[in-house]
Design a protein that fits this description.
- The chain is of the alpha/beta class.
- It has a single domain, classed as 3-Layer(aba) Sandwich (Rossmann fold).
- It contains six helices and seven strands.
- Strands 3-2-4-5-1-6-7 form a seven-stranded mixed beta sheet, sandwiched between helices.
- Helix 4 packs across helix 6 and helix 5 runs parallel beside helix 6.
- It is globular, with a radius of gyration of 16 Å.
- The two termini are 23 Å apart.
- The relative contact order is 0.23.
- Keywords: ATP-binding, Cobalamin biosynthesis, GTP-binding, Kinase, Nucleotide-binding, Nucleotidyltransferase, Transferase.
- Pathway: Cofactor biosynthesis; adenosylcobalamin biosynthesis; adenosylcobalamin from cob(II)yrinate a,c-diamide: step 5/7; Cofactor biosynthesis; adenosylcobalamin biosynthesis; adenosylcobalamin from cob(II)yrinate a,c-diamide: step 6/7.
- This is Bifunctional adenosylcobalamin biosynthesis protein.
Length: 187
């Protein structure tokens, strides 16, 4: 994947990946990148509200983003959601980690799901910014499911980063360019 979309504001490549730990500032940076394009904004939400605390988190995130964003709930079917994005839009997919978790818990074929996602990202006519957690910097998890999740998340992040033209890491709210160039107006 190469090239750049013709944008009114900051130019983003077809695929940008923003990686970081919990509360690192990765989602805020991703929102800023999408907002800076001055294109219609689409938020592909992968979180599911299994309890009151998660429902509250989701509601607060929607309020913080404001009415300028069109939210599409896609906890499992990101491919379909990406295929419906108009070419003049810009997408924030938040986040690949929850999407992977949803498929893992549903006992889906993770390799096939990841391949489908990568194809859908390549076919999306609008620029996409994917948020994903970097979970490999911690201790080795104590149980099989957690170790499998950590390994699968690392593999997915590598595939996303290989396909992306821009990859950013975020630590303590500060972006680190890992691949490509940060748009000047989005920093």
């Amino acid at each position: 994947m190469s090239g750049s979309h013709d944008l009114t504001g900051a130019a983003l490549p077809p695929l940008t990946v923003v990686l970081g730990g919990a509360r690192s500032g990765k989602s805020r940076l991703a929102e800023n990148l999408v907002t800076a394009t001055q294109r219609p904004r689409f938020y592909l939400a992968t979180a599911e509200a299994w309890d009151d605390e998660m429902r509250e988190r989701i509601d607060l995130h929607r309020q913080d983003r404001g009415p300028e964003w069109t939210t599409v709930d896609a906890p499992l079917d990101l491919c379909s959601a990406l295929s419906r994005i108009p070419s003049d839009g810009c997408v924030l997919l938040d986040c690949a980690t929850l999407w992977l978790t949803n498929h893992l818990l549903a006992e889906h074929d993770l390799e096939a799901e990841a391949a489908g996602l990568l194809t859908a990202l390549a076919r999306c006519p609008a620029p996409v910014v994917v948020v994903s957690n970097e979970v490999g910097w911690s201790i080795v998890p104590e149980n099989v499911l957690a170790r499998r999740f950590r390994d699968e998340q690392g593999r997915l992040n590598q595939k996303l980063a290989a396909q992306a033209d821009l990859v950013l890491g975020v630590m303590a709210g500060l972006p680190i360019v890992l691949k490509g160039r940060m748009p000047a107006r989005a920093a």
